[in-house]
Design goal:
Bound molecules: ligand GNR, nickel (II) ion
Oligomer: single chain
Number of domains: 1
CATH class: Alpha Beta
Number of helices: 4
Strand content: 25-35%
Helix content: 25-40%
Strand order of the largest sheet: 1-2-3-6-7
Largest sheet: 5 strands, antiparallel
Order of helices and strands: HHEEEEEEEHH
Distance between the termini: 28 Å
CATH superfamily: Peptide deformylase
Number of strands: 7
Length: 172
């Protein structure tokens, strides 16, 4: 498996804004991509990762919501769709590996019904709530070139990007 560089808003905004393309075939090449994404996500560490965050504009997401004292529970989502979203929304404090060290509340539907293809290309439908609902909506936004900071006011968004740019300059 290969660790990939995670793109960030200071340097890679144009790529992160791209709309990703549906996957045609779930094959071994795609599984290599998903394995690399999972390894990259665990190393970061993060709880979810969309392919565009490593510069691949395919509608592919990996996730693991297991707590630190639980065994790993990797999940893979290919061409995910939201079939239904609750009217009820609520805030959750979100972060993003592409917007490092910024944490802000975002309001989203509290429950969603999903359809996607899994690691083996099988069609799955299931309901998500709590952190699962938050994370899948955050990741599906990435597939459409949307970042969690796009849900904030312009002032908060611009401050967040400035902070990430300043930190990147300090690191260099
Ligand atoms: O690791 C992550 N944590 C997180 C916390 C709250 C809401 C969403 C997330 S996803 C994020 C990893 C990431 O950037 N995925 O795109
Ligand atoms: Ni993210």
């Amino acid at each position: 498996m290969t660790l990939r560089r995670i793109l960030t808003v200071d340097a890679d905004m144009a790529v992160l804004k791209q709309v990703s393309t549906p996957v045609e075939t779930v094959d071994d090449d795609l599984r290599v991509l998903m394995d690399d994404m999972l390894e990259t996500m665990y190393a970061a560490p993060g709880i979810g990762l969309a392919a565009i965050q490593i510069g691949v504009a395919k509608r592919v997401i990996v996730m693991d919501l297991a707590k630190t004292d639980e065994p790993p529970a990797p999940r893979y989502f290919i061409n995910p769709e939201i079939l239904w979203a609750s009217e009820d929304t609520g805030p959750w404090e979100e972060g993003c590996l592409s917007v490092p060290d910024i944490y802000e509340d975002v309001d989203r539907p509290l429950e969603v019904r999903l359809r996607y293809l899994d690691y083996n290309g099988n069609l799955v439908e299931e309901d998500a709530d709590e952190l699962y609902a938050v994370c899948i909506q955050h990741e599906m936004d990435h597939l459409n070139g949307v970042l969690f900071i796009d849900h904030l006011s312009r002032l908060k968004r611009e401050r967040a990007v400035s902070k990430v740019k300043k930190a990147a300059r300090a690191d260099a």
